[in-house]
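User: Can you fold this complex?
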Amino acid sequence: MKKILAILMAGVLTATAFAGCGGDASSNSGSSSKAGESSGSTATGVNASVVDAAYFGDEDNVKLKVWTPDAAVNLVKQQIESFKKAYSDKKFDITVVAQGEQDAATQMLNDASAAADVFSFPSDQLNKLVDAGVIAPVAKGFTDYVTSSNSEDTIKAGTSKNTLYAYPETNDNGYYMVYDNTVVTEEDAKTLEGTLAACKKAGKKFIFDAGDGFYACTFAFTAGAKIDGLEEDGITQKFVKYDEDEAVKTLQAFAKLIKEYKGTFTSLNVKNVASGFKNGTCGAGVDGSWDTKVNQDSLGDKFGAAKLPTIKVGDEDKQLVSMFGYKYIGVNGSSKYPNSAQILALYLSGEECQKQRTEELGWGPSNVNVQKDKVVTESPVLNAIKDQSQNSCTQVNISSTFWTPMGNLGNKLVAEEWNPDDADATRKLLQDTITNIRDEG
Amino acid sequence: MIKSYKLRRHVANFFIYALLIILGIIWISPFVYLVMHSFRGEGLIAVDWLIPHEWTLQNYIDLFTGAGGNASINFPRWFLNTFVVAIFSCIISTVSVLMVSYAFSRLRFKSRKKFMNVGMILGMFPGFMTMIAIYYLLKAMNLTGTLVALVICYSCGAGLGFQISKGFFDTIPRALDEAATIDGATKNQIFWRIILPMSKPIVVYTVLTSFIGPWTDFILAKIIMGDNLDNYTVAIGLQKMLSNDFINTYYKQFLAGSVIVAVPITLLFLKMQKYYVEGVTAGGVKG
Amino acid sequence: MTYVEYKQLNPFQRFAYNFKKFVLNIPHAVAKFFKAIGSAIVRFFTGIGKGFKNYGVTFVKGDWATKLSYLIFGIGDIHKGKYYKGILFFLTEVLYALYMIFFGWTYLQKFSTLGNVKTTQGFNELGMPETVYGDNSMLILLYSVLSIVITILVFAVYISNIKDAYRHQVLRAEGGKPTSLKHDVKEFLDGKYHMTLLSFPTLMIGIFNIMPMVFMILIAFTNYDQQHLPPGTLFTWVGFDNFASLFNFVDSATKATTFIELTKWTLIWAVVATFTNYILGMVVALMINKKGIKFKALWRTLFVIAIAVPQFVSLLLMNQMLQSNGAINIVLSYFNGGVNPEIQFLNSSTLMARMTVIIVNLWVGIPYTILSMSGILMNIPEDLYESARIDGAGPVKTFTKITLPYMIFVTTPQLITQFVGNINNFNVIYLLTGGGPSTEQFYQAGRTDILVTWLFNLTMGSQDYGLAAAIGILVFIVCATLSLLIYNNSKSMKDEEAFS
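Assistant: Here's the predicted assembly.
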């Protein structure tokens, strides 16, 4: 409580300070003059997640709806209570509704006016939301503060058409390897071969969801076929130039290894990882940051986390490359209280709230100050995610035709009838996959 | 000769019994699996064995108290919602089906056959596209997210399902109507006093089918309800429990919830089976 | 073939004969069908012509009140003393005018372009983002359809207002008096009872079925897709582009391939699913209902439970059970020396997945067949069997001579309904396989997807509304033609009054 009060004080002080000296160099120049014109003494820029009440304009008796994942509902409710205290002279009626982030864009597109005013979503949905014109950009006065307080990558991925559209919320939207440390040692976990061998020895499974494009793209990315945003038409997926022979060799290496460890390497829905840990049938698996808590609960002391392992291709140990993204808090463009929605989004994405989410839910923060915090630097999971993020493609600007062909690639490679020695078939599969992603029908 | 015939019949019956037992087991086993695992204590989602190791009532308790997860799941409320929606839509549907089929079966008027043809083909339109339009129509009436909207959706098209009950009405001799008309009864009186009392099987059949609808539909209902969790029906709720966000926490509760939904419908069905068969047969033969 | 010859055939030959006749009859029936449509169109236009003529003639012959009814609804009726009807006519006009002025016209005027004012985003004086919404093509289309439908209905009211005015004018000239309200109400419970009965259901169907349908049909001619999503962006008319892309193997090869392949599989699926269900269901029903088999109710109950469990529950459960770590594989491992065979039923081989779907569909569908068949079996008149037994027929003979022909005759319409139902069988495919196994050759579809599930993926997944609507229309045309043909040629329709 004291902390919040302190932030509030700081916010008010700085805001008035800025107002006093007009267009400060560090504040946003675009809005300052206009703001000044409208009411002589309003704020011109912010450097905290609590801002001058002048930003509310004439909004009062504010009614807002917030979408957040089920796991965070209770925490967000608490945070909203402190938000209300921070702006105690305004009246709020804020409801929090559980809404899975993966559906956020779909729900917004179906009917934005019935959707939440403030909502969480993963980075790859940004383009869809911007194209459909349903998301409002970040308020001009807040942009500098948001940009400076969050990591560069998250800002970059939250920007579309040179405009920052969303408030970064997390810096952890990716997958990594979780393992039972009584089965797989830290050393084993460094290579895929080692992990699989350890699992096989213990008679346990290694679970990887090869049928889901989100995970299966690891095969293609590791092989070198990494994505590189969209072409100029704004819909066709762009790939970096890669050595096709090398890529085929890598895919063959995967298929060979999978075949060799048939019965150990299992392609199953990712939700089976936690379940398998709980049943004692799973030795290791690739799972996302959102399942960290349930995996930790299932394994207890036996919980181990590491970046994705390497795979031996020829003589080289190749690091597996994953898909990695961020989560954002967005503001609905059709909100009836647009100013309040911006202020709430700024608050919820602020340092204090991010820190609480890291402490209670284990989410990796995007805020640079929180990233330096002990909670983050000493967390094995967040470190594993951070390490993995060095070897990843950013989950932004993904064409909607990306996922299905990638999932198909994964399904084919792990299928029993797939022949890993058939280089031609592998090459054709890779080519078909890329063509299908790029050709939108 | 007679002996061998009898023997043959015994052998045949024996095989039939054997086959029926095997088939019965196949048909009932998913249900048995569902019930068993709804009492399972261990594991989160699937387990690698058939019979649970730990038995517990916890899943049912959690389901009704909302414990064991965040506050988003409110199964008792959803159950009540579904029940209310089912009752109302069942009343409206039954009334409109009976009205339409009586009109088509007993009354003769201009363009009757055209109406019937249009009615029949309208029911064949793939519904997914029309859902967007229905959603915005309901929104224009300020009804989205309400139970009233669901009642409207489940009962508005009911009149199109007239074939079976029309077939049933067709089998009632017209001489009855004629006699009543001579006695001075109006068409309205004939409908209420003569035809309806004779139509118990078809009424039960219609009530049964329209009562079950709201318990099983999850696509239309989900679009109409959006994020209004308080007004969810059990079908959307159960579906939600299997979404990525929820499945690890709620899978076993999903199984328990499915049993809770299935048991009353099963009992209802078993009790009403006789009428259902009569209705569908009488109507189906002609329809 | 003469009647005597026909009577001498055995039931199978008769069935074959009828079936052949039916198949041979299809071209004829199709021709008749289109001829009927053609003549209906001709009648429609001659009707309109006649309507115009009457419209003019009535105006010339009408008195001042009738003439005024051409402008103001209901004046004629009120003048002749038919007050309640006149007032209703008048109210209709007032309400319509209000609707058009305050709501309908704003949308209807943009119908031809579906809007041209774009949505823009900017910042207000506080530096806060502000969205200025332009036209919403979807709402323009929807409310235009609503306005057009309402206009047509009001036009019908307008015409009947004129006719009614003239009728009452003639009535007065002949010295008659308009009927009272009480009399009319009575008439609606007797002579015009069908109007009373049908009006409410028709209204509901009109609003929530027909209007959305018209909307959907129109969507098929627009470019409503991922790049043209209201409210942010506008969409507009594109003619037959969506239909063309389904058949264009050059520019949109993936879509066209998907369409052709899915159509094939949809038809195979519908035929196989219908007939396996029908035949196996009949076999089980016969076994249960065989004389001498005890516990009939028990057997039937076992199968009925499968109906009573909501389909989405049982199918989702089946999906779990068919996974490589699911119950089926566990059971199989008992026969495999304890080693889990990890068979991928649903997402590996196309053939395996398709067979699994068909088999699971048997599990879902057979109980329904059993229920209806049991009823029919119990309904076969006992005296048929009596006389057969007196003639010395054995059980095999009574079965082939009586039971089978009776069943086939009686259930043919059901078979067709089920066939159409299977073309649109969304649940089994969507919940069981979700369309899998995936393939790189299809656009937004998998190997077991049928047309309706593809349609669903296109709307809910990739927002290709225009394309989806086009597919919807094609599926609808096939189903509707098929059922119209069959129903109007089926015995039950021709002999509607046979029992009465």
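The first strand of chain C starts at residue 120 and ends at 123. The domain at 250-494 of chain C is CATH 1.10.3720.10 (MetI-like fold).
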